[in-house]
């Protein structure tokens, strides 16, 4: 059997349970799904399944709506939160890749841009300056 780990985005709650957890009527959840505000996952049979993140979003929608924010404004805010979450994940990935690259190439501080792209230049190697551009950047501590 496949390893199926649950996280905040795993769709597990049926609409009745999700509505109860969010403090809303199931019809409200259906309406939010129709307008694309909070879109749950679907089973192979087409039934809605809500994740814990969906439940959090529903609670946030209820709170913001009670504060007077319009549904289109709430939808935009939720989209921006999703985008922010994805960008933070990507930053973490890139920081890990950069860290790994630095660990694999200790002491490399000179790079050359040539026909094959930008490459690190090992200490002591001469560069043909007529065909390549040499860039040097001191360590920043």
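^ structure tokens above, recovered residues below v
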């Amino acid at each position: 059997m496949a390893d199926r780990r649950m996280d905040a985005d795993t769709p597990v709650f049926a609409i009745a349970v999700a509505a109860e957890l969010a403090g809303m009527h199931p019809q409200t959840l259906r309406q939010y799904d129709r307008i694309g505000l909070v879109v749950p996952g679907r089973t192979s049979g087409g039934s809605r399944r809500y994740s814990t993140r969906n439940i959090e979003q529903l609670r946030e929608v209820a709170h913001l709506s009670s504060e007077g924010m319009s549904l289109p404004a709430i939808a935009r805010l939720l989209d921006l939160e999703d985008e922010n979450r994805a960008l933070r994940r990507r930053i973490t990935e890139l920081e890990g890749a950069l860290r790994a690259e630095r660990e694999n190439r200790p002491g490399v501080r000179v790079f050359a841009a040539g026909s094959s792209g930008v490459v690190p230049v090992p200490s002591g190697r001469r560069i043909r300056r007529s065909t390549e551009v040499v860039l040097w950047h001191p360590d920043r501590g």
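The mean pLDDT is 84.
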